[in-house]
Amino acid sequence: MPDTLHLGLDHFDVQIRSALAQALGLEKDSLKLERPRDEKMGEFAFPCFRFAKEKKTNPAELAKKLAGELSVEFVAPSAAGPFLNFRVEPAALVKRVASDVSKPNYGCGNLEGKVVVEYSSPNIAKPMHVGHLRTTVIGAALSRLANRAGHEVVRINHLGDWGSQFGKLVAAWNRWGSEEKLSVEPIDHLLELYVRYHKEEENDESLPAAAKVAFQELESGENNKTRVIWKRFTEYSLREFNHIFDRLGSTFDFVRGESWYEDQLDPLIDWLESTGVLEESDGATIVDLKDHGIKTPCLVKTAHGTTLYATRDLAAAKSRWEEFQFERALYVVGAEQNLHFQQFTTVLKKAGCEWASRIEHISFGLIRLQEGKLSTREGRILSLTEVLDRAVELAAEIIEEKNPELDHKEAVSEQVGVGAIIFHDLKHQRNKDVVFNWGEVLSFEGDTGPYLQYSHARCCAILRKADRPAPSIDSIDLGLLSDSPELFVALGRYPQALREAWEKREPMILAQHLLKIASAGNAFYHEKRVLGESEELESARLCAIDLLRKTLGDGLGILGVPTPEEM
Ligand code: ARG
Known about the structure:
The longest helix has 25 residues, at 535-559. With 567 residues, this protein is α/β, with parallel strands linked by helices. It contains 21 helices and 13 strands. The radius of gyration is 28 Å and the shape is globular. The protein starts with 9 loop residues before the first helix and ends in an 8-residue tail after the last helix. Helix 5 (130-149) crosses helix 19 and helix 18 (485-492) packs antiparallel against helix 20. Arginine binds at residues 118, 121-123, 158, 160, 313, 331, 333.
């Protein structure tokens, strides 16, 4: 374990491993604790199989011996067959966790180095669709997790704004473009032009010719008419995208389209040439990757001399390495581009870039919309805006029914609707396909965003009702909370959830742990009266509620789920 994210239950984890390491004559960091299968057996478990072999004894024997020998403050070891279980004394556990949770650095790691996270990266002149939802939401969550782990994070949005398709779009604009439509519904109009181009291209030879000329004009680098209109397309697209990024709470340090690397493409090809990896194949320039187990070569220049998507990714990777000297570079892009990522990263390795092994393709599965009238409107693919709007509409209906008196209903509906979409995406393992079912996404009960938001708002409501500042940890008798170790176990495992979510690049681990915290929290305030107890007990329980509120709010913030105080 490289890094204890200050500290919670990890405090005991470290203590136990130190004692085990000493008893076994091993390094503490080579040992890993698990959780007992049954929570009643304690908070930690240590399987003895591997070590028994080394000590030439059997696991049960070793577990028994260690249980008798080990001494860890506030921790009781017990042998259960081949396992050694550890139970932390509830009073000590509550005290430790409560005091750590209340500190501002709870859940903060000390990892170093820059992590570049590229995500979202939609294509200009087209609406963002639900597929872009996943990269945007997963990328933003991973950026925050990396940051929490201690890394400096560089967020990049690699807009798809270059390639021969923009020659086609400009050709279509020159024929049929309407300034009026462009100013009112820019993306719709550009999409319409693009579709029309492809329809008419077959019967009209002058169109592809015009498209070719337009792309040459674009590639010439001059500030000609074509470039001016292409720039406007980019601006209009960004305006729409930014609106979606705002709603989803995603931010970027750099919005750099593929075009940004344009003048680095020739130097890139020269450099590749100098490393000896380039070959010619039917007039095109390729890198053969068979010797690296990849059948399809990476095409870096067509027979017509134009560069490609992969060429721009090679240039972008190299430029990012030179600029940021990253520890890791993550690319949050769907699994349909697996081959592309294997190809260009392998080209870099073949060309001798040691740093190429720091690149990670963070792939993810598809979103499949449940069939039915909510999935598509007018029989076409849903745009991301439509999905968000629909979620907000549904959230508004639910709020109207459950809490018609609520202030700021519109703003809260936006938070709940968008939060529901984000959480639904992140609660799944990223490589699995996500099936979208409106009823399930927005339910206020079950494993949903609204359920977590509601748990958080519930804490806020209790604290509001108490009508006094939440008592600080030093002002209460922590012993009064010893009857609720379950809540503190859940809160105390928050740093571990953060760490594992980052290590595995899997926000789901955090999402699932927040559900556990919420359920422990719900049990707490259902079983135990908070308000109207004796002054001392009320203070202690209010403090617990405040720590619960804080941790839920923090975790939801990392996932990008908004946390209204009332809903
Ligand atoms: N613009 C592409 C798309 O929308 C995604 C770009 C992914 N990033 C990259 N470096 N290739 O499909």
